[in-house]
Amino acid sequence: MIIKPRVKDFICLTSHPEGCKENVRRQIEYVKSQPKVELGKRVLVLGASTGYGLASRICATYASGASTIGVIFDKPAHGKRTATAGWYNTAAFEEFAKNDGYYAKTINGDAFSQTIKEKTIELIKKDLGKIDMVVYSLAAPRRTTDDGTMYSSVLKTVDEPFTAKTLNLKTNELTEATLPPATPEEVEATIKVMGGEDWADWMHALKDADVLTENACTVAYSYIGSKITYPIYYEGTIGAAKQHLYKTADALRQEGFNAIISVNKALVTQSSSAIPIVPLYVAVMYRVMKDKNVHEGTIEQMYRLWHEYLSQPQPKVDDEHRIRIDDLEMRDDVQNTIFEYWDKVTTENLTQYADVDGYWNDFYNLFGFGFDNVDYDADVNPEVNLDLVE
Ligand SMILES: NC(=O)c1ccc[n+]([C@@H]2O[C@H](COP(=O)([O-])OP(=O)(O)OC[C@H]3O[C@@H](n4cnc5c(N)ncnc54)[C@H](O)[C@@H]3O)[C@@H](O)[C@H]2O)c1
Q1: Domain locations in the chain?
Q2: Which residues of the chain fall below pLDDT 70?
Q3: In sequence order, what DSSP letters do the residues of 268-321 get, joined into one string?
Q4: What's the rounded Cα separation, in Å, for the pair 318 and 44?
Q5: Which of 125, 293, 378, 381 has its CA 20 to 30 A from that of 193?
């Protein structure tokens, strides 16, 4: 089958197995080229197939030589449908890791469920005994709790409607988007999905099953971002969920867990593309950070987290006990230039003030497209075997 990108709104409906493999290979090569990092040797990554979770798994394996168990929620190819990018990424990662002599096993299923928690604990007991580190990197649109209730997260403001410039991803034109405020129920549902409840459930389940080492640490990811995106992110429904995540980290620490939040930089991932206004902010931010030579991608961010923070006995944290690897994005000179460009940018001067090509390049790369050393006219088999834990 010849696989071409089929983009609909903020998602690509197809993924390319060879391109996804190339994406994973490049991330592995980057980490291999960096100094080793002394950190957890048995690592559980929840949400391990794309974005920050995939980069975390690659760092754990290739920077610290860890055995990893990944939990993902992905689909294999079916008829004319390709597999999801996360499926191909995970198959490629496992192939590289195993060829390089590392243990890597993956569970595909709903991480929010008790069944998947139990399955994971069983696998840890059987293969690794205990875990030293848990990475919580789920980004999900919905969550079904064990009593069968389904909660859907929304990307809205919490009080007033908010209007701002946005990039029409179909036409590459600037338009205005108005986001309505969420109802209290929608705020609560978003907290249920993207807040810290499930992170705490995982930590309690792992502790109760006695599969955590004494000094085990756990990290969950967050975003704060620029004043430009505050109404939709920091002060919006997703921000409310992140506040809950911070409270969860505090509560876990009070219970004796070594729990930390890392606030990461905004990047193009399948989740961030879905947030209105954010893609334009990201494109302007890419322009500014690339011009200032301080741009990083997911793998550079995660390697810095491993190398400069998590491996330190007392990692540097902010007043709210969070690691800030969004430090370069939040630098005053970077933010001030972003504000200036944000005011000036229009459809006509878009490429001057926003790195739209960089945005699209990262977007296509997420699905395995746009790599110059992959032959996209070649016939490829979309059915790629992933040796999942049953
Ligand atoms: N992308 C950004 O700009 C950005 C910036 C800072 C922080 N973050 C945070 O990083 C974390 C990860 O986000 P991302 O952007 O890497 O997302 P992503 O969409 O690339 O990855 C999400 C992962 O979660 C998995 N997943 C989703 N639902 C699942 C379920 N029910 N069960 C098991 N696995 C499931 C997916 O398979 C995937 O592996 C989130 O907490 C996000 O808020 C993202």
Answers
A1: 7-140+191-271+295-327
A2: none
A3: --TTGGGSTTHHHHHHHHHHHHHHTT----HHHHHHHIIIIIITSSS----TTS
A4: 26
A5: 125
pLDDT at residue 169 in the model: 78
Give me the pLDDT at residue 125, please: 98
Q: What are phi and psi of 173, to 5 degrees?
A: -105, 155
Angle of helix 278-291 relative to helix 332-344, nearest 10 degrees, comes to 120
CA atoms of 351 and 149, how far apart (whole Å)? 45
Query: What ipTM does the predicted assembly reach?
Result: 0.99
* 52 C-alpha to ligand 1 centroid (Å): 7
Encoded tokens for 32: 């291999």
Determine the Cα–Cα distance for residues 25 and 280; give it in Å rounded to an integer: 28
Phi, then psi, of 310 in degrees rounded to 5? -60, -30
Report DSSP letters for 193-229, one per residue: HHSSHHHHHHHHHHHHTT-EEEEEEEEEEE----GGG
How many angstroms is it from 55 CA to the middle of ligand 1? 11
What is the Cα 386 distance to its own chain's centre?
A: 21
Residue 181 CB neighbours (<10 A): 16
Distance CA 275, CA 271 (A): 7
**For residues 269 and 266, what is the distance between their CA atoms, to the nearest angstrom?**
9
268 marked as binding residue: yes
End-to-end Cα distance, the chain: 28
CATH of 7-140+191-271+295-327, one of 3.55.40.10, 3.30.2000.10, 3.40.50.720, 3.40.50.10240: 3.40.50.720
Q: Which of 20, 50, 244 to mutate to test the pocket of ligand 1 (most atoms within 8 A of CB)?
A: 50
Distances in whole angstroms, Cα of residue 191 to Cα of each of 198, 247, 278: 10, 12, 20
Which residues, listed in sequence order, are joined to residue 259 by a DSSP beta bridge?
Answer: 218
| H helix count then E strand count, the chain | 12, 13
What is the rounded average pLDDT for all residues in the chain?
Answer: 95
CA angle, 196 then 202 then 205, to 5°: 140
- Show which residues are catalytic: 233
